[in-house]
Amino acid sequence: MNYGIVIVSHVPELAQGLPKLLQQVAKDVPITAAGGTDDDEIGTSVTKIMTAFADNPADELLTFYDLGSAKMNLELASEMSDKPIHLYDTALVESAYSAAALLEAGVKLPEIEAQLAPLKIK
Active-site residue 86, yes or no? Predict the structure, then answer.
């Protein structure tokens, strides 16, 4: 199985910047992002999330987000996607970075999820 990462943020600049950081440890992991509303204001967009899903060449996606309303849009987009989507309620930067590094190292998904568990937002 081929895994990729999707980042969703309320701020376009954060959504664009985090993949740059992740690529430093995971140059072979496909990473796409969706940031801001359709008008590039603060918020999220199901349309942008669906585009990030489609633009990511991976077969299966690990998704990370910044705030609760982004989760709602991710859940909605996930229902419309043909790809399996894994949504993580974890600290955005730390968990996305960890997942990217572990994917690059060839670690299997159950072990990645075990390592993300302590980063869960309660």
Answer: no
